[in-house]
Write a structure and sequence with these properties.
Four Helix Bundle (Hemerythrin (Met), subunit A); disordered N terminus; 41 helices; Beta Polymerase, domain 2; single chain; mainly alpha; 5-stranded mixed sheet; about 1000 residues
Amino acid sequence: MAKPATQRPKLPGVGRLGLVERQAQADLDALGWNTDAHVELLWSLSRAPDADSALRATVRLSEALGRDWAELDGALLKDRGLRGRLFAVLGSSLALGDHLVANPGSWRLLAGNVTLPVPAELKQMFGECADGVTSAATAVAPLRTLYRDRLLVLAALDVAPTVENEPVLPFTVVAEHLADLADAALAAALSVVTASVCGDDEAPALAVIAMGKCGARELNYVSDVDVIFVADDGSHSTLATATRIAGEMMRLAGEAFFEVDAALRPEGKQGQLVRTLDSHIAYYERWAKTWEFQALMKARPAAGDAGLGDRYIEALMPMVWTACEREDFVPEVQAMRRRVEALVPAGVRNRELKLGTGGLRDVEFAVQLLQLVHGRNDESLHVASTVNALAALGAGGYIGRDDAANMTASYEFLRLLEHRLQMQRLKRTHMLPETDDDEAMRWLARAAHMRPDGRHDALGVLREELKRQSHRVSRLHAKLFYQPLMESVGQPPLGFSVGMSTEAAERQLAALGYEGPQSALTHLAALTGGTGRRGRVQQVLLPTLLDWLSDTPDPDAGLLNYRRLSDELADQRWFLATLRDEGAVAKRLMHVLGTSAYVPGLLMRAPEVIQLYADGPNGPKLCDADADALAGSLVASAARHSDPLRAIAAARSLRRRELARIASADLLGMLDVTDVCRQLTAVWVAVLQAALDAVTRANTPESGPPARIAVIGMGRLGGGELGYGSDADVMFVCEPNSGVEESVAVKWSVTVAEQVRSRLGTPSSDPPLDVDTNLRPEGRQGPLVRTLASYEAYYSQWAQPWEIQALLRAHRVAGDQELGERFLLMIDETRYPPGGVSPEAVQEIRRIKARVDAERLPRGADPNTHTKLGRGGLADIEWTVQLLQLRFAHKIPALHNTSTLDTLNAIGAAELIAEGDIELLREAWLTATRARNALVLVRGKPTDQLPGPGKLANAVAVAAGWPGGDGGEFLDNYLRVTRRAKAVVLRIFGG
């Protein structure tokens, strides 16, 4: 009995089918899919990742089939599996749609009970295709068609669950099949080329070793296939023939299947394409780098002479598992991590599935490093694929079982997205669509089996899943390395039951950059000891903190500093809460603790600065402060105390806080070197003012102060260019108040000045506060304080050329402002004489500089890398600038400036020297100042000598903000910059 009309399925409209193109209805009509019999077929079409693309490709396929279209049309109505696979692949891959149109009969591969052939069957298929073919040119077309046919079948089975309820192919099955397909393709290409090159002659024994993802049998749909070629016979003729075969095989494979890359061979692209086994062994024993042993972990014979391939693996694999004992293992591993991070532009880091933060490379790098570290002692880790390695690491207790499972799931999810993106056009890509490209993201969601979950459609589910998986990979990346260490020092964390031995923990810490792994474990035990809140929070924090510390120049010192800081702040609940809740604070703090010996001590006495590591509405809070306003607060805070000792203690406290803030911002790259110098100067000026006020109040009789006092800054203090290790060069000038005899006023002023100097110079745990008065008239033999009239008399009669030069940087910094300004006006006649300085004075300054160069450099110092007195260092630049001031300031008012950089700008504006020379001098001054500051930050004490290449130089490079933190590159740049500047100095200063 016929079904009532009301119960018959109705043809859905194009809108309900997800078809949006105007041509859609016409295409459906052209195919004849407008009858009741096609309802189920149309609903299958609607479930394709891109129904419009699937329909468009079907129309093209029908045209290519011509009369044979009827066979496919009928099969689609009957075979639910066929229509599911066909629509899925046509809606997922434009490239495979083109392949079907070009080879329309290949649709039959998707009909019926479709299964994946095993490796032996694949090799037979490709072998039969290559059999009897002796020309590479004639082999390309049939081999390419066969390879695309096999990709078509795999892709259809892979994506069909989005259309029909077919079983989902596990990622591992897809990746292994792609690798097996590559093996068969390589073997076929080698067969064709060998027949073409050798003809009836005996072919040389040649093994093709698969590397990378192909070697690990975790290949992508579109990847370069990394290989290494190994020959058996080392004779010249045999190697020449083998090299020709290898080269032509790579070209044939590139035209027919995929790019073949042999860059992982010894010496890379500069090395021989084919080497003998003995030559390979010799290279890896003597010359190979850590990354080359890491690459060998995935080596596998893929084609060619199987026996030779097995001998290659047997010979080289033992070297892989001892690579972590190499002296340069740790720095090379760290350098590899930095290079990977530097490869990705910041603007696309969130879209990069492979190299971005929380991406595939994070997983692979972590897993391979753990394998290298523990593989010598545990053969179960000798596996190639990432998924198998994660399982082995979990089973061995090197990572938590739950962490291994979660990381595997995240890795497979990211690889799934990578496969779908590559499948679309069969192009190698790892880049997600733009986040605002809803259509592209919606297609990806459907192709990746994303389904609505009640709260989100497929697009929303994908976006949420991307955030979750990326965050989980980033979090687990640290846990993989460090969470198991927690159990080796105490109770295992919740849900973590399989532990790592103490020896394994020490081995792992050493490989991650900790030179004292036993001490590190002691610190971890102390930090996580006990059952209270602090221990639990530390157990949660430390895996991530240790990961960040391992990327600093001195992880051991960083961990020790963190332990001391944690002990110091044990009663401050906000400390651990801030690190737990503010990731930016924790990461920045670890960078500071593992780089600097200067800042940690300050933070222990001014811990509130750590809260400024957070980001505020206007950026990092460390940079939010107004240095001048804070300097005013310092003076005001000290003024609240009548006792000078307490007043100066208050000033020291605020100075400590400011030094911690400035140095932290500097280390974190938030301040440039000129801002650092300016803010350090402002702090020093405020301390001098606070100390002068406090001592003056304490020594003022009831009748009032006998004199007014002004403090004149000299040197870098006067120039506003103080560094962390700079003393405060000053002179004290006084003027008797009305009715006070000069001798009384001067005596009182000397008392005040001496107390200011002595009380500021009192030793403490803070960076020193040394006040240096040796630039006063007559130096150490002269009176500590003079009246303005006394200074004027001295400079008008007795000033030496070096004293005139020193006055170029004199500037009022503290005390009576009006008196200080009068002092500056008075010395203008001396430092900027109307007719300029005499030629004799210029000659004397040059003589003094030559003497300084010959005598002042410390014994044993390297004149090339001494930042102050070395070649092209600060003294060279500053003396050159000051000589130009002495010669031309009487003509050019803009040269009346105490700042080296500002004066250089004025010299350039006046065209006294070439602009190129100005740039060289400016760059050298900035480079030397930055390096000098970095030395203090790293070593914790004033020093001017840069170290040679090594760990300390790396730390200085990091503190100086050198990209990549390579100490060798930093020193090379310093030498280059200062060498060029020295040439300018010799030409200008030397006349």
